[in-house]
């Protein structure tokens, strides 16, 4: 089995090396409006520090964004009212529509060489967790499963993650949050600090993409519904800790919205981007023909499989994921716009959670194995 683990580990590393080689040749001027707007946010952070949260078009007094517009031959580069990714707010100012997280991460790297290091750093995190899963696998089938999923996760850091700079850090956060969720559920006593950390990570992911706020839905359902039934103080504290973590993680976005839109709860997106739910067969059909549909099938299939597992922590992980998948897929399948990455975050968070839930053993099981006995029933173990 060690040889199989080594083979899959080398496959993941080979894909990582191939990705890094491909990334090293990427251009930051590929003509995509979103790219240039994220780079403008990064430029503002590098110029003004925390003051870069203010994305008013008037702050382009050094003509940075104008220069980027000219590079891609944008005809209205002189007129801020025509700039892409900018929307008018009260008082007539024009601001970036995106939350500040992606720009902040890009600002950590030197101008002109920001995108490639961001993607490499995110890929290293994903690959590290993929290798960890392979190491944790204890049976031949689990080694194969962890190896195939790890290779897929590393590959996805190029396609479809390249479609938007916000996807790369989101993928890394989903991998870490999925691992921590599995660890949290495998403990006999679930740590309040750990669920707060999971909430913090998911809240921080909102700073990359606002729809990432939906990634926390399944956790709120998992913690909220049992509290309504039992009125348990422990469940209430865990739910409160998770909610507080999510809120703290979102602080940069809330601050940016307060500065740019006049209220922490006001969006900087235009009316064309804020639309009510509707069901469009054409949009649904696009998902069926896209790689995202494969990820959806994998996530749904793995959830159904673990719902029938003997181990309690696996069933609990499947319950968290089931609620999260239902909520998120329900939203995006009724969203009248399709992109190649919309449901990738929720499917990857789900698959990372389920993968590690299947690989980790609860503490009581490990103790029983260490003394050479197998408990007759995991349901009989103390909670």
Task: Describe it.
The protein has 383 residues and is an all-alpha fold. Among the domains are: 33-107; 159-264 and 280-360, no CATH class. Helix content is 62%, strand content 2%. It contains 16 helices and 2 strands. It has a two-stranded antiparallel sheet. A hairpin with a 5-residue loop joins strand 1 (86-88) and strand 2 (94-96). Helix 5 (115-136) runs antiparallel to helix 6 and helix 7 packs parallel to helix 15 (344-359). The chain is globular and about 65 Å long.
Tell me the strand order in the biggest sheet.
1-2
Query: What does the overall shape look like?
Result: globular
Give the amount of beta strand, in percent.
under 5%
How many H/I helices?
A: 16
Name the assembly state.
single chain
Mind describing the biggest β-sheet?
2 strands, antiparallel
Low-confidence stretches: 373-383
Keywords: Membrane, Transmembrane, Transmembrane helix
Protein name: Glycosyltransferase RgtA/B/C/D-like domain-containing protein
Transmembrane segments: 116-136, 141-158, 164-185, 192-210, 216-233, 240-259, 291-309, 316-335, 341-360
Task: Label this structure with key terms.
383 residues, mainly alpha, 62% helix
Give the helices and strands, then pairings.
Layout: H1 2-23, H2 33-48, H3 64-71, E1 86-88, E2 94-96, H4 101-107, H5 115-136, H6 140-155, H7 167-186, H8 192-205, H9 217-230, H10 233-249, H11 251-261, H12 281-288, H13 291-307, H14 312-333, H15 344-359, H16 363-370
Antiparallel strand pairs: 1-2
Protein name: Glycosyltransferase RgtA/B/C/D-like domain-containing protein
Transmembrane segments: 116-136, 141-158, 164-185, 192-210, 216-233, 240-259, 291-309, 316-335, 341-360
Keywords: Membrane, Transmembrane, Transmembrane helix
């Amino acid at each position: 089995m060690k040889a199989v683990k080594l083979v899959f580990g080398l496959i993941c590393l080979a894909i990582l090396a191939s990705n890094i080689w491909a990334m090293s040749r990427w251009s930051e001027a590929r003509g995509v409006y979103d790219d240039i707007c994220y780079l403008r946010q990064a430029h503002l952070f590098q110029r003004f520090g925390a003051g870069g949260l203010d994305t008013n078009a008037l702050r382009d007094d050094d003509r940075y964004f104008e220069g980027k517009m000219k590079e891609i031959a944008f005809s209205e580069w002189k007129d801020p009212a025509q700039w892409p990714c900018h929307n008018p707010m009260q008082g007539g100012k024009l601001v970036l529509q995106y939350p500040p997280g992606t720009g902040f991460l890009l600002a950590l790297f030197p101008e002109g060489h920001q995108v490639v290091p961001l993607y490499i750093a995110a890929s290293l995190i994903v690959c590290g967790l993929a290798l960890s899963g392979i190491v944790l696998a204890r049976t031949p089938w689990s080694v194969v499963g962890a190896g195939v999923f790890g290779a897929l996760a590393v590959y996805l850091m190029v396609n479809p993650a390249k479609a938007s700079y916000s996807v790369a850090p989101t993928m890394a956060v989903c991998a870490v949050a999925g691992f921590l969720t599995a660890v949290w559920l495998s403990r006999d006593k679930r740590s309040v600090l750990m669920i707060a950390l999971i909430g913090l990570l998911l809240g921080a992911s909102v700073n990359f993409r606002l729809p990432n706020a939906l990634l926390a839905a399944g956790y709120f359902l998992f913690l909220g519904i049992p509290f309504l039934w039992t009125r348990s103080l422990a469940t209430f504290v865990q739910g409160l800790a998770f909610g507080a973590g999510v809120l703290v993680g979102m602080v940069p976005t809330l601050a940016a919205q307060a500065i740019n839109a006049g209220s922490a709860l006001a969006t900087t997106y235009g009316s064309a981007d804020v639309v009510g739910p509707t069901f469009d067969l054409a949009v649904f059909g696009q998902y069926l023909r896209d790689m995202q549909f494969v990820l959806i099938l994998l996530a749904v299939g793995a959830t159904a499989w673990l719902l029938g597992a003997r181990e309690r922590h696996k069933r609990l992980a499947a319950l968290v994921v089931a609620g999260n998948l239902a909520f998120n897929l329900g939203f995006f399948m009724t969203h009248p716009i399709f992109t190649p990455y919309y449901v990738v975050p929720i499917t990857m968070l789900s698959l990372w959670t389920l993968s590690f839930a299947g690989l980790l053993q609860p503490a009581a099981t490990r103790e029983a194995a260490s003394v050479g006995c197998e408990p007759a029933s995991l349901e009989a173990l103390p909670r």
